[in-house]
Amino acid sequence: MRVLLALGLALFNAVALAATPKLQAKPAAPAYQLGPEQLGLVVNKNDPQSLEIAAYYADQHHLTPEQILEISLPTDRVWITEGELEQVKAQIDAHFSPQIQALALAWSKPYRVNCIGMTYGITLGYIEGICSNLGQPTPASPYFNHATTQPFTDLGIRPSMMLAAQDMSSAKKLIDRGVQAWGNQPKATAYFLTTTDQARSSRAALFPPSQIVKKPAIKIENIHANTLKDKSDILIYQTGLANVADLATLRFVPGALADHLTSFGGMLTDSGQMSSMQWLESGATASYGTVSEPYSYPQKFPHPQVLLAHYLSGATAVEAYWKSVAWPAQGVFIGDPLAAPYRSLSPFK
Predict the structure, then answer these.
(1) Is 248 helix (H, G, I), strand (E, B) or coil?
(2) What is the pTM of this model?
(3) H or E segment and range at residue 122
(4) What tens digit of pLDDT does each residue of 197-244 get?
(5) What does the alpha-carbon distance between residue 288 and residue 261 come to, in Å, rounded to a whole number?
(6) Which end of the chain is least crowded, N or C, by CB within 10 Å?
(7) What are phi and psi of 194, to 5 degrees?
(8) Tell me, what's the pLDDT at 30?
């Protein structure tokens, strides 16, 4: 991770922090309503695992055939071209009705379009010029910390998340956690770790202070440490390291979100650092990482307070994670997009 660009941090603090909801007993946020009936499922018909994951996901979340789209993507590389992305986006636009507000992508690779994350490309399209100068800011997301509960209706975008898993067994466990999470109201803890890696701790100033939130009933712990160990109540785990130790000692509640600020966590299947998929393998339900060198702009990673405030207010994982990243072009969102532990009503119970 390269040295933090001071100008970028100043810009982020001036704009993003000013827009951050305060963590009070009940964070101010819209009445979230995104549910299974508003989710589209995109499947790579060339990938047997994608087909199997999609079938299980559709069954567990009760999706209709009209909510599923099969496309053709390569399975022998981690990237697609701009032209291939345009074809996929055209198919998505032609297939899904205006009712569909968000997307689940049922594969782990390809995970990028050149240097741009797959979920960004599917959601907002390809942007010329980013890959020629990765040290610069990338375009601001129109969805960042937005009040909308219907992103396609209000903004013309469908935030997407990849159902990334190493194998079918892992995928089923992930999807089961997403179903279990809905409306479960866990009494859990959000952990924010400032590590000795200064560059990867560039968002530490954005971590909320340690406190107890009464409704919903959670704890927040702001810790200076390189690792979290022997915890069994994890709702949020955000840190900054190339590789995170002691994951085998941890237990995540269904619907938990976890990510580490590092350069290549979003290289899901071939990273020299810890892949963001490792969070899902360890029990988290959604995560985020960058697929190309982001430098340590905190704007390119989830804003801790924005993420937590929207999630506690009933947002799904896809909504809370997407709303928390100001500049998401180089990132990829992974997990079950429908996980929503603090939604007041559950269609699965």
Answers:
(1) helix
(2) 0.92
(3) helix 118-124
(4) 999 999 999 999 999 999 999 999 999 999 999 999 999 999 999 999
(5) 9
(6) C
(7) -95, 120
(8) 74
Query: How many C-alpha atoms does 152 have within 13 Å on its Cβ side?
Result: 19
Sign of the Cα pseudo-torsion (105, 316, 63, 143, in order): negative
Look up residue 270 and give its amino acid: D
The answer to whether residues 306 and 20 touch, using CB atoms and an 8 Å cutoff, is yes
DSSP annotation of 8 reads H
Closest C-alpha to 100, from 64, 59, 73 = 64
Find the largest Cα–Cα distance for the chain: 50
Query: Which pLDDT tens digit goes with each residue over 122-150?
Result: 999 999 999 998 889 999 999 999 999 99
Q: With beta carbons less than 8 A apart as the criterion, state whether 148 and 320 touch.
A: no
Beta strands in the chain (DSSP E): 39-44, 68-71, 79-80, 102-105, 112-113, 116-117, 160-162, 189-194, 211-213, 218-224, 234-239, 252-260, 286-290, 331-335
Residue for token pair 């969805």:
143
What pLDDT band is residue 21 in, cutting at 50, 70 and 90?
A: very low
**The CA-based dihedral angle spanning residues 262, 268, 273, 278, taken in that order and rounded to the nearest 10 degrees:** 90
* Tens digit of each residue's pLDDT (9 = 90 or more) over 67-101: 999 999 999 999 999 999 999 999 999 999 999 99
Q: At 146, which amino acid appears?
A: H
342 contacts 185 by C-beta, under 8 angstroms: yes
In the DSSP assignment, the letter for residue 139 is P
Give me Rg for the CA atoms of the chain.
18
Q: What is the residue-wise DSSP string for 280-322?
A: HHTT-SEEEEESS--TT-GGGS--HHHHHHHHHTT--HHHHHH
Question: Cα separations (Å) of 107 from 168, 253, 271, 293, 338?
Answer: 11, 24, 17, 23, 16
Q: At what angle do helices 168-181 and 48-60 cross, to 10 degrees?
A: 20
- Give which of 156, 35, 175 is closest to 106, Cα–Cα: 175
- Give the integer Cα–Cα distance in Å for 204 and 111: 28
- In the block, tokens 């379009």 appear at 113
Nearest one of 96, 105, 99 to 33, comparing CA atoms: 99
